[in-house]
Amino acid sequence: MTDLSERLGVSPATIRRDLVKLEEDGLLTRVHGGAVVEEGDQPFAEVAEVRVSEKDAIAERAAAMIEDGQSVLLDIGTTAYRLARQLHGRRLTVITSNLVVYEELADDEGIELVLLGGMVRREYRSLVGFLTEDNLRQLHADWLFLGTSGVRPGGQVMDTTVVEVPVKRAMIKASEKVALLADTAKFPGHGMAKVCGPEDLDVVVTNAPVDTATRASLQEAGVEVVVAGRVQT
Q1: What are 80-110's pLDDT values in tens digits?
Q2: Is the same domain home to 52 and 13?
Q3: Whose CA is closest to 105, among 116, 90, 119?
Q4: Prediction pTM value
Q5: InterPro entries in the record, alphabetically (predicted)?
């Protein structure tokens, strides 16, 4: 902090204030003595092994929100995959750019499965690009279950990879209701790119109470916070 102050010719208080603002915007993460800039997503296989029980609790609660006959958009990511595992035997239409979700549900004949087109991100098992976005403009879903890399105290939903953001935004536009799936590690989590604000969400499904500042921002925007097993007020 002192080095930055001396190099830029401003006070430590100014540096501290600017770093807070940059962190809120998702452009860096503050650490002791300074800040670091976030890099991209970890490979899907690595993330899939982390906090599995927490993701399953969120997935089970999210699945209970879906009514038979509805159309459901499932985002990329491992929590959406855990949700797909909860949907076997249901009469639903599932739309996804998540190749692992597709593989999980491909043999379930009760589910109408729509795989969006696009360029393949092999390490993260997703489809992205203008083809994916064009497909979404032709579709409408009752629910979107959205993943995230982090949720800022102001309720902004963030992602670590810029290329995924336009697809996520197109999914939001294509959906009647948006439910964010976020375990406690996502508050504040990380991410350099803003996907949407709290006003674009209807529900946040998590596995434990979120921090006071974020909860207040979500409630001010009219977002319901559902903790696995109960509704947070």
Answers
A1: 999 999 999 999 999 999 999 999 999 999 9
A2: no
A3: 90
A4: 0.79
A5: Carb_Metab_HTH_regulators, DeoR-like_C, DeoR_HTH, NagB/RpiA_transferase-like, WH-like_DNA-bd_sf, WH_DNA-bd_sf
Residue 78 lies in a domain: yes
First to last CA, the chain: 39
User: Whole-angstrom Cα distance, residue 175 to residue 145?
Assistant: 10
Residues 151 and 97 placed together within one structural domain of the fold: yes
Domain count, the chain: 2
One-letter amino acid for residue 190 of the chain: H
Considering the domain architecture, whether residues 95 and 11 belong to the same structural domain is answered as no
Reported as a single tens digit per residue, the pLDDT across 127-181 is 999 999 999 999 999 999 999 999 999 999 999 888 999 999 999 999 999 999 9
3-state secondary structure labels for all residues of the chain: CHHHHHHHCCCHHHHHHHHHHHHHCCCCEEECCEEECCCCCCCHHHHCCCCHHHHHHHHHHHHCCCCCCCEEEECCCHHHHHHHHCCCCCCEEEEECEHHHHHHHCCCCCEEEEECCCEEECCCCEEECHHHHHHHHCCCEEEEEECCCEECCCCCEEECCHHHHHHHHHHHHCEEEEEEECCHHHCCCCCCEEEECHHHCCEEEECCCCCHHHHHHHHHCCCEEEECCEEEC
C-alpha 141/C-alpha 95 separation (Å) is 8
- The verdict on 68 and 144 lying in the same domain is yes
12 lies in the same domain as 95: no
Contacts of 38 (CB under 8 A, 6+ apart): 26, 28, 29, 160, 190, 191, 192
CA proximity to 38, closest of 184, 218, 183, 194:
194
Q: Which domain holds residue 26?
A: 1-36
